[in-house]
Amino acid sequence: MSCRNVASRLNAYLDGELSARDREQVEQHLGECGRCREALERLRAVADALTQLPTPPAVPEGFANRVLARVPLRAEPQPVVVQLWRSFPLARRVAAAAALVLGIGLGALMARDVTRASPKTSSAADPNAVYRLDFLSDAPEGSLVDAYLALASGANGGGE
Q: What is the pLDDT of residues 117-149, one digit of tens each?
């Protein structure tokens, strides 16, 4: 029997709860293993110390019932449903709905303008006109903006 198995059975051994076969195996191991004998002696010392403690005072009769009577009965918790939309006044709800509709409408108009401005073929359309980069045309020569315009206009060998 291994030390781990014996260590897990030492309390039952001290209390006399092991079967005859298990008790014999534990005793055989204890005869061979000093560490397990030391662990058994420590458990015996703890058990002896516990028996020397004074007896606890008696619990008054009806104590448990008095404590339980003071505890409020716990009901099943009810889920709290917060209807945030209804917590705002009607005027604010109408204003929020109008802002939402206006935002969706503006977004659709802006998307339509972008799709209309996209080039049909990338080689035939002028990127400066398509992407409205003409405001960058007065950039100094050799600047980063000038290099970007050169790349966007296909001056780099076919726009590749």
A: 555 554 456 666 666 777 777 778 888 877 877
Which DSSP letter does residue 72 get?
P
Q: How far is CA 140 from CA 37, 65, 155, in A?
A: 92, 92, 17
Q: Which pTM value belongs to this model?
A: 0.37
CA–CA distance, 58 with 93 (Å, rounded to integer): 66
Instruction: Answer whether 125's CB lies under 8 Å from 131's CB.
Output: no
- DSSP class of residue 107 equals H
Alpha helices in 33-143 (DSSP H): 34-51, 63-70, 84-87, 90-117, 127-130
- The contacts of residue 136 (CB under 8 Å, 6+ apart) are 128, 145, 148, 149
